Amino acid sequence: xxxxxxxxxxxxxxxxxxxxxxxxxxxxxxxxxxxxxxxxxxxxxxxxxxxxxxxxxxxxxxxxxxxxxxxxxxxxxxxxxxxxxxxxxxxxxxxxxxxxxxxxxxxxxxxxxxxxxxxxxxxxxxxxxxxxxxxxxxxxxxxxxxxxxxxxxxxxxxxxxxxxxxxxxxxxxxxxxxxxxxxxxxxxxxx
Length: 191
Known about the structure:
Blueprint: E1 2-4, E2 10-13, H1 15-30, H2 35-57, H3 85-98, H4 116-132, H5 138-148, H6 155-163, H7 166-187
Antiparallel strand pairs: 1-2
InterPro entries: Metal-dep_PHydrolase_7TM_extra
Domain Metal-dependent phosphohydrolase 7TM extracellular: 65-190
Protein name: Metal-dependent phosphohydrolase 7TM extracellular domain-containing protein
């Protein structure tokens, strides 16, 4: 209902007119019976379906798996400021002391056919075996042992080793291996 004065000007509009316009708008654009509404619903559903499929298919794979380390390295800003420098340094040293050193070394350096400990043991055991051969002279023993060792050692070293007693050979074997182990440990540095 609209109230008018003598000059035919609208003075009052009732709320019923606005309500009817709103109902007409909703019926026209959102009713299931309306062709416009049906097309709009189909468009929205299709668009939602396409977006869902594409977001599932092309979502980035960051490679994070449960129980495995992260494939990305997270770096802190360069401008980090510490409130208490002494406490931070103390904590850093404490945490560093708790972490085990990681060594990169080859076990075959100490053992194995080419290892230092194996070669030391082989030299002294071979010296003991060659000493026991009674069918050869001393010079033949030196030449025989030099050939077995591939002429890596001079004749004077081999002759000195052949002149030692079995107890002295065993003592030298243990001391030489201990020294070699100590040198190898000092030579292996943490990464």
